[in-house]
């Protein structure tokens, strides 16, 4: 700006000099530019010579015109430079795709309207209009993922949700292993507010936590996709008495009744609060899987009687309403949804519903050996229905048993090798594009179920699965990279074990859980089945408080030593788990996987210490 002002001052000086030439017979010695030492008017023009005067004036005018052109060009150049410094935020996918950042059509219209002259009377907005404008969603640059195949790690937070401090350690690991996104299923860990505040758990993340999670993801080049259930698996909401009336079947908290007026209001509230806290999200996953008991509520039965029993249409109608709401309020966001409820719906009905305009199906199958022909048929049908992209969902944990404690690596690796075959055959479907695969890591089968494997326990399996996708199979290079990143000496696929140490966050828990799996039940069962105990200190002896101290001393030291060792180990495990998880989760995991066995050992030790002090008294009556 300072340089522009200097140019204007120079122009003014030249204009004054020309006027002096025209009005005076005395001529300036010279006119110099501040940034050019060349003379604009030459010294020594003879007074009274009109021809010389005319020629000199003409020369000065020509020079001034040239100078003005130079100034205009310079000012334009500085203006463009300034605009570049204030350009919109850059593409935030960190070079993972090709293409330019494009603004949505709506944002372009808003920007263009700012350049148009306003009509009289429209210069100032009314307060109501200003309030409406503030409530409109802020639009962000649309990211071009057309050349990017997404590898998304699913974080199921409806059980064993880790502290943010642990996620800070895990996100860099995910990036190194080849992930480029996160599918975060918050459920009751989201900081709902207002009418929905009742839905958040005692240890729910704070608003600041949600912001930090996204910041950490951005630092590690991980695209965040929030998941909000809108139909099935709404137990975390429908379990509350406040929402009992919205259940499809009164006694089951699983599924939403799509015919109740407040059902859509609940869904809109859930979506709005989550998406508003994720302003950079390009996708939202709306769940919609396993809508159990759909059509069994009285309102649904009445609707089916009037619509030829078409349960598929009932499902699509609700999803269309959800999709329309999201597209109108958040035009930057695309929808993902599990596909299982659509598998039996005809191509024609899918096309007629209109959901193909804004949603992409995510075909899920966690089997070690996929039915590839069946999946190929699903893809073909979705392509015919008009879907433009399709996603797949594999599993790296949480799909081998609702109370599984240890992750079977081979099973999950084979699941991904099968999915690679499907991905490699996508050229058979040119009208629909494969967009990405979500590696699911289920923590519970539903809101009320037990905990599956903990995340640290599943890290080796996740690493094998991700590297298999990156390298087209678990080949030598994939194995080498997996070992290098995890800090292991070897991966034993048959034993599902990372051997020879480990350097990943949570490795202490990985080791401890493995020790529990291999030894806790075995050692306690062995001591309870010991011949001395069964023969001289049985449940009957303990019930009536009598035994021979001489016999008891034959096994007493062994029992006490085992008990003390496990109590010390469990105390260390408590501390390690407490560094990653919240107290209620640690208690739950201990109750399910440790105390069932430890309580037997503790009761045995308690009875031993009491009865041996009786010195062989008669049994109590």
Automatic annotation (TrEMBL):
InterPro entries on file: GH, Glyco_hydro_20_cat, HEXDC-like
Matches recorded under CDD domains: GH20_GcnA-like (cd06565)
Top-level taxonomic group: Eukaryota
Key words, A-Z: Hydrolase, Membrane, Transmembrane, Transmembrane helix
Catalytic activity field: Hydrolysis of terminal non-reducing N-acetyl-D-hexosamine residues in N-acetyl-beta-D-hexosaminides
UniProt EC number: 3.2.1.52
Span list, region Disordered: 105-141
Segments forming domain Glycoside hydrolase family 20 catalytic: 200-390
Spans through the membrane: 60-78
Protein's UniProt keywords contain Membrane: yes
Gene3D superfamilies: Glycosidases
Annotated family: Belongs to the glycosyl hydrolase 20 family.
UniProt name for this protein: beta-N-acetylhexosaminidase
């Amino acid at each position: 700006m300072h340089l522009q002002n200097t140019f204007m001052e120079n122009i003014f000086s030249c204009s004054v000099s020309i006027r002096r030439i025209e009005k005076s017979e005395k001529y300036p010695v010279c006119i110099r530019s501040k940034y050019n030492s060349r003379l604009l008017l030459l010294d020594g023009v003879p007074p009274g010579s009109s021809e010389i005067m005319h020629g000199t004036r003409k020369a000065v005018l020509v020079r001034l015109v040239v100078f003005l052109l130079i100034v205009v060009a310079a000012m334009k150049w500085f203006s463009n430079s300034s605009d570049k410094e204030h350009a919109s935020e850059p593409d935030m996918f960190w070079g993972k795709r090709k293409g330019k950042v494009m603004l949505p059509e709506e944002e372009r219209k808003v920007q263009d309207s700012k350049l148009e002259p306003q009509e009289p009377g429209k210069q100032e907005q009314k307060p109501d209009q200003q309030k409406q404008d503030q409530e409109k969603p802020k639009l962000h640059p649309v990211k071009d993922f057309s050349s990017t195949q997404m590898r998304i790690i699913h974080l199921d937070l409806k059980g064993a949700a880790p502290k943010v401090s642990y996620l800070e350690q895990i996100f860099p690991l995910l990036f190194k292993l080849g992930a480029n996104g996160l599918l975060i299923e918050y459920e009751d860990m989201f900081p709902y507010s207002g009418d929905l505040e009742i839905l958040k758990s005692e240890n729910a993340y704070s608003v600041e936590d949600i912001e930090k999670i996204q910041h950490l993801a951005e630092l590690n080049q991980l695209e965040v996709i929030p998941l909000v259930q809108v139909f099935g698996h709404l137990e975390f909401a429908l379990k509350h008495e406040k929402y009992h009336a919205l259940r499809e079947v009164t006694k089951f908290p699983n599924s939403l009744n799509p015919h109740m007026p407040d059902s859509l209001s609940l869904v809109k509230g859930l979506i709005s609060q989550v998406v508003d806290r994720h302003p950079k999200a390009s996708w939202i996953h709306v769940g919609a899987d396993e809508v159990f008991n759909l059509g069994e509520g009285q309102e649904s039965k009445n609707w089916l009687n009037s619509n030829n029993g078409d349960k598929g249409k009932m499902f699509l109608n609700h999803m269309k309403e959800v999709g329309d709401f999201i597209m109108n309020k958040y035009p930057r966001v695309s929808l993902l949804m599990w596909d299982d409820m659509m598998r039996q719906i005809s191509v024609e009905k899918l096309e007629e519903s209109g959901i193909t305009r804004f949603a992409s199906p995510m075909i899920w199958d966690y089997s070690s050996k996929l039915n590839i022909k069946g999946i190929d048929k699903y893809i073909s049908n979705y392509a015919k229905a008009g879907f433009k992209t399709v996603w797949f969902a594999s599993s790296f944990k949480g799909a081998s048993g609702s109370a599984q404690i240890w992750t079977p690596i081979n099973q999950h690796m084979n699941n991904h090798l099968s999915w690679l075959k499907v991905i490699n055959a996508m050229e058979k479907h040119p009208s629909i594009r494969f967009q990405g695969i979500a590696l699911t890591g289920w923590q519970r089968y539903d809101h009320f179920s037990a905990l599956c494997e903990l995340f640290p326990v599943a890290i080796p399996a996740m690493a094998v699965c991700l590297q298999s996708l990156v390298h087209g199979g678990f080949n030598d290079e994939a194995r080498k990279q997996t070992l290098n990143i995890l800090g292991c000496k070897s991966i034993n696929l048959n034993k599902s074990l990372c051997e020879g140490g480990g350097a990943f966050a949570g490795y202490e828990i990985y080791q401890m859980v493995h020790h529990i799996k291999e030894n806790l039940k075995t050692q306690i069962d062995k001591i309870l089945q010991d011949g001395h105990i069964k023969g001289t200190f049985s449940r009957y002896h303990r019930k009536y408080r009598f035994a021979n101290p001489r016999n008891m001393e034959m096994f007493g030291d062994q029992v006490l030593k085992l008990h003390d060792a496990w109590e010390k180990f469990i105390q260390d495990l408590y501390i390690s788990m407490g560094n990653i998880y919240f107290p209620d989760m640690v208690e739950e995991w201990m109750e399910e996987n440790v105390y069932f066995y430890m309580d037997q050992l503790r009761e045995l030790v308690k009875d031993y210490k009491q009865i041996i002090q009786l010195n062989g008294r008669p049994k109590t009556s």
